[in-house]
Amino acid sequence: MSRFWQTLTAGGGADPAPTGDAPTPDDGEVLDAFSNAVVAVAEKLRPAVVNLRVGRGPRAGGGSGVLFTPDGFLLTNNHVVQGHESARVRLADGTELPGRVVGNDPWTDLAVVRVDGPALPYATLGDSARLKVGQLAVAIGSPLGFESTVTAGVISALGRTLRSVSGHLVDNVIQTDAALNPGNSGGPLVDSRGRVVGINTAVIQPAQGICFAVPVNTAKTILPQLLKHGRVVRGYLGLHARQVPVAPDLRARYDLPGKTGVEILMLEEDAPAQNGGLWIEDVVVGFAGRPVESVDDLHRLLTQHPVGLPAPVVVLREGRRVERTVVPGPYPDPVRG
Asked: Active-site residue numbers?
């Protein structure tokens, strides 16, 4: 476990901005720089990307995954391994190893599988909070059975809400135009330095270039519980939201520490958020006495706050600071909804 936590503390961040009056490269140099970046990422990450197979016969299925510790823990999508306790894991060199599903979370469409094997290659987890729209994104996986396939594009948008293959709404997903196809699910979305910034999860059919990944920071938040309990024990509010900027005058007026908050896009009927007096278009800036600047912040605080214990929620509503009290409930059974 110590080696696992060591990988989580690896630094992440955006590449430094260029300085000085460097000469403008010609088209050939730009192409070479782009190509070199993608090649370097592919060479670094492909050994850590695996093909997963579950079930046999008519119930057989599969997808991709990425090893993130040398002792065999890998991340994938919940919908890739849902309903299965074991998986067959094939490495980039063709080696096939047995895998065991350690934990899964339908609400983020993430799962952890443990592979039995010595000294496995692994990837470094980056920091998805520092992503910028327009930066390079590389996806690696096994689309349609073609293993170790590499596609490249850019980060198209951040903070999207997506209905996953299993039917659950996943907040704060990354949109990219790096091409994904069936079988890419569970594979890594990677930045230009070869750090995993997302887990590829879905495409919009028949649209072209609209693909999605769950941010790696969401995975970091729930990994300890998946490893300990096999599931995520978190409070449930019954809302769906996105990160939005907070106007400077409101930040100054109410002495808010952050520049962003979480806007409520949807409230589920008769759920804790609605019953507690929250409204659609409220911007949540505090929960249980802690500041909220992102959807990840809210998810993290809900995993820390005991279910059934009232919690104050601070929101901005039509320019006013409003405080309400909600009582987080247990998450509904994902099978029953």
From this structure: 79, 109, 185
